[in-house]
Amino acid sequence: MKLRQARPEDAPDICRIVNGIIRQTLVTFTTLERSPPDVAAEIDRLGAAFQVAEREGQVIGFASFGPFRAGPGYAHTGEISIHLAPRARRQGIGRLLIRRLEEVAADKGLHVLVAGISGANPPAVAFHAAAGFVQVGRMPQVGFKRDRWLDLILMQKILPPGPDGAPDSRGRAR
Questions:
Q1: How confident is the model at residue 173 (pLDDT cuts 50, 70, 90)?
Q2: Are strands 148-158 and 134-145 parallel, antiparallel or unpaired?
Q3: In 18-31, which positions are buried (b, 16+ CB within 10 angstroms) versus exposed (e)?
Q4: What is the pTM (predicted TM-score) of this model?
Q5: Residue 39: which domain range?
Q6: Which residues form the N-acetyltransferase domain (predicted)?
């Protein structure tokens, strides 16, 4: 198994993973499946902020981060997403992917990573807590899927500064 930056040609494998999650679970609130062209465009846009785990030439998991919210005041905060194929779970692959994302985020000058997690996904809450994220909020019944109201749990991790002198908590160079 190896980790690497995602490439546009990974889009079909990524779609198989995420679309299965969309169809079969309450892990994500969306009901709209992803298309390979849309995922390929996202990979191009995010660059190093989109990582995959690959085994025997096939993507078995992915993790990415993008802006948390629009506007310059949020420039040092990113929101992560991480998903694994069922056969790749509980093998430490998610832990490796999240560590890689943290490294890339720190290198890009991010100070905080945020995860928005479905209240119907306690294993993801435990996973993020084990990775050093702390719960900072719970928004009751903001999601709706499969005739069910779902809570959104917000977790965050404050990152150590990157090697290039990432800004301090006030956005100033160190």
A1: very low
A2: antiparallel
A3: beebbeeeebbeee
A4: 0.89
A5: 2-158
A6: 1-160
